Amino acid sequence: MNDALFDVDRIRALDAADPLREFRNDFHIPIHDGAPQAYFCGNSLGLQPKGARAMVEEVLDKWARDAVEGHFLEPAPWMPYHALVRDALADVVGAQPSEVVAMNTLTANLHLMLVSFYRPTRERPAILMEAGAFPSDRHALESQVRFHGFDPATDLIELQPDEADGTFSMAAIERAIAQHGPRLAAIVWPGVQYRTGQAFDLKEIARLGHAAGAIVGFDLAHAVGNLPVQLHDSDADFAVWCHYKYMNAGPGAVAGCFVHARHAQTTRPRFAGWWGHDQTSRFKMDGHFQATPGADGWQLSNPPILGLAPLRASLDVFARAGMGRLRARSLELTAYLESLIRAKLSDTLQIVTPRESERRGAQLSIRVLQGRGLSGRAAGRDLFEFLATRGVLGDWREPDVIRISPAPLYNTREDILRFATETDRWRTG
User: Fold this and answer.
1) Which residues carry this modification: N6-(pyridoxal phosphate)lysine (predicted)?
2) Binding site annotation covers 357?
3) Minimal CA–CA distance to 207: which of 180, 179, 174?
């Protein structure tokens, strides 16, 4: 065992010298028994940026002071408010500003994208997705197949994982696309699989899907703000995501959507709304829908200003930190977490997330092999609850996975060492 990995003084010194250490001060860290919690749930709900309150209060003050005129008066008028997050959001996801919009919620956006991009025919009715997807995605895709009069039993193709820990090889994805290609209308795939933490090569999946004649879209709920996704260069047709995980925009935050620039002036059908109407003629009220070019054209209603305000605060932090630097720090933190587990806890914990850095983001998904409890599931739940009582908060996913996600904006090496130390105490206690 490498004792240096567990030397708390050395780890604190590394944290103190970290060039991104100051960004932790931009967030409210929960307190447990009088001390900061080791919070590893950024993949479920990100921490509150300290700037969020001021952004929300700015909106409330404008509402109190200006009422309806707040739509037009500075600072931050409400009419173009969604545009205030556009450029910074495009930088986070690697897109052109016109390709992204913050609107609605993730599953609502997925449905809106499928209205336009899932156009099944008798010859091509099928959607390819991963088996074990997050339930909202499966519900959405199954309902879309049924809505168009097709049978999910044959036309919703769920690819089973082919690797030992429930992950997918690119070879398996390629084989599935080749096998089902003539029947595929669309491929909808995650950027990062929520349970295993596996990250995927979006560009290669899009290339394979397009070569087979299918539309390709991505659910990036666990990828955006976690690792660089380079959406424009990936050549995906569309992508959807939420902003309450790594993007720290608050519970139930307004979601995000990407539509590739080649579809900016599409004639594909869509479910239209007033706010998607071209802004130059929106107020003519002539009853004729003319879509705004780009992702904005899929908006339905004016955006919830109070809901967008915390996203502005979080994006300000991302803009100062930069995704490149955050990814580099994330690689270091997650590698440190893996090293601690393999050095001292490998007889107790099994990492199911891929070892290759390019195949994962911040999250390591962990199964408990042995320890207190009568079964793997009972032991895992027992460890999860023990850690919570010690101020180390991970995330539990049925049936047997603890997800630990060191977020590079606010987690530290000392947080990670606390996880390993408390797990060792549980193991030996």
Assistant:
1) 245
2) no
3) 174
